[in-house]
Amino acid sequence: MFEIVRQEKMSGARVGKLTTPHQVVDTPAFMPVATKATIKTLTPNEIREMGTQAIISNAFHLYLSPGYELIQEAGGLHTFMDWDGAIFTDSGGFQILRKEFRFKLNNKGISYVNSRDAKRYMYTPELCMEIQGALGSDVAMVLDDCPPWGSTRDEVMESVCRTVNWGQRSLDARCNKNQLVFAILQGGTYPEMREACASRLVDMDFDGYGIGGLSIGEPKDVMHETIRLNLTQIPPEKPRYLMGVGSPVELLESISLGVDIFDSAFPTRNARHQTVMTRYGQMDLRRSSLVRDFRPIDEKCGCYTCRHFSRAYLYHLFKESELLAMRLASIHNVHFLQELMREARNAISEERYSEFREQFKREYSSPANTA
Amino acid sequence: MFEIVRQEKMSGARVGKLTTPHQVVDTPAFMPVATKATIKTLTPNEIREMGTQAIISNAFHLYLSPGYELIQEAGGLHTFMDWDGAIFTDSGGFQILRKEFRFKLNNKGISYVNSRDAKRYMYTPELCMEIQGALGSDVAMVLDDCPPWGSTRDEVMESVCRTVNWGQRSLDARCNKNQLVFAILQGGTYPEMREACASRLVDMDFDGYGIGGLSIGEPKDVMHETIRLNLTQIPPEKPRYLMGVGSPVELLESISLGVDIFDSAFPTRNARHQTVMTRYGQMDLRRSSLVRDFRPIDEKCGCYTCRHFSRAYLYHLFKESELLAMRLASIHNVHFLQELMREARNAISEERYSEFREQFKREYSSPANTA
């Protein structure tokens, strides 16, 4: 199911192949986010053209609307949204734990209020597996309890117990044999809690492991330490998925540590807010110096946007609030990260990953180079 | 420059070829609207894939922003927006005559207030030709004075005098020899004013003629009578362009009368407001009966949207206010009109246009057939 094709000697970085029902995914892989069964502004053929092999959707959001029975009736999530690559579905644990849902946690699951009818409902590990089974995603993430950054040790301990308990219940409730099932490691930033959560979930032998509860406000070094710790605990033969991380430098750092899979709304959300990535750092497409800049966003980039349009044109579209602006910027940003993953895989295969990473970081953070 | 390939014996309908610097345009032709150098939500390759040969942009809007010198510096409008087909540019006469611009008309031109600096500027026939020459559009429309529906005979007479005078000044100011120049016929719905305006402008021997000032509130039969009248005055060898008309039945009726070219924001604007065209009339994509309707918008349609997505998916996207919804509906609607034009050209060539038109109208307006 997961094969390590190449393990760099100098770092933890590795190239792998994750075989899912719909697609063999080359790792390290970045997944754009299709929370509501669409990657905002883009069509599946565009996503594919950028070299995307896997995307991630959200079980809880699709449960709320349009409903998983409807998607099952449509022939499953792949057919519904016309994507023939791999689909991961996030459990929605992270999304449901928000003020707007007036959630209450107990051992049974998460109780929340649906704004449509203002009634209270339960979201349980079993329901979450039923939804994902019906959606027919390639990889289901089990329901977890992600404590907010700044939780006390006791609060985190409670969340770890719950996450572990829900992990076992999810395995017991597995209903789609074709689907891979990944657990999500929690434990805040308390090393002993991280260890406790990981060791218990690893014992249950999931198909892969998500590292959750990070990039939610904690300092960068604490995040890196926590990733590093978790990676020592996940068996090397299992795919490792760092959830919610998508800035290019973070991707490359985490790959060094041995992470295989990523997802983030970062490239598409930034694009809709007129910010694109280039080799030389981020670029604000409303920067006044771009008004008459007829170069593409990135002269070395092969994306549709860079092959056809200038910074001046994008500046004009954003200024006029034209929707095409968001779309062209999204194409560029997702392509940028997919290209970065391709280059990372090549660099790992050729045993020059650290050099590649350091050069990228140097260029990306050098303001003098900013075009 | 314009060749009539086929003239139906039974009606005024004709198939032609309009040779422009960038593209030979098969007529009858429908042009989607790219007012601000973008067809809202769509890329040029999508527009092309639908069979679009010509689009229309707006000289006045591009003059206001980003400016015609900038677009000239970019290499012209074709390069700026990456469209290699034909581009018509509307003069903007119709657009400037709006309350927001606090316009004042005089014989010199149109004075308006630019909201950016709250200052008053003049827009003249000469400036309008200079802008369009610099943009490098294939067809320039001369500045006209379009009186609002309900104007008195005296008001319309004044506007006709101005339009005729501006027509001559535009010809004198012609600065781009590659560009075709079309006049715009005005005269409200007063037959003698229409005739006066047309005969004077026809005497000036423009490359083609726009029929302007219609579809702005007047009754349908008055509009048809006015078109019919104007068409008797434009020499048959000249291309005839009915401005701002885009509903399918109106297109087919006008083709019968001998119109060659159309433009309208109708298909794209409706699409953004969740309304699509089908053989059996318009469909509101938020209609509750579509929630579980897994058929495409139109089972016989070959557009990207219909080949890949269901009504249920589009319903879901519109419900969630996903931008992809507007885009997929726009693709369908523009494709629908381009397909209608292809079928019209075939029907004319095969001397069965009236039959084709009547059958379309029957199906399109039959509520019992609505799927």
Describe the structure.
The structure is a homodimer. Chain A has helices spanning about 45-50, 60-65, 70-75, 75-80, 95, 125-135, 155-170, 190-205, 220-235, 250-255, 265-270, 305-310, 310-320, 325-350, 355-365; strands spanning about 1-5, 15-20, 25, 30, 55-60, 85-90, 105, 110-115, 120-125, 140, 180-185, 210, 240-245, 260-265, 275-280, 280-285. With about 375 residues, the first copy, chain A, is an alpha/beta fold. Chain A folds into 2 domains: about 1-265, TIM Barrel, CATH 3.20.20; about 270-370, no CATH class. An 8-stranded parallel beta sheet of chain A has the order 4-14-13-12-11-10-6-5. In chain A, strands 1-2-3 form a 3-stranded antiparallel beta sheet. Chain A has a 3-stranded antiparallel beta sheet with strand order 7-8-9. In chain A, strand 7 (about 105) and strand 8 (about 110-115) form a beta hairpin. The radius of gyration of chain A is 20 Å and the shape is globular. The termini of chain A are far apart. The mean pLDDT of chain A is about 95. The interface of A and B includes residues 291 and 304 of A.
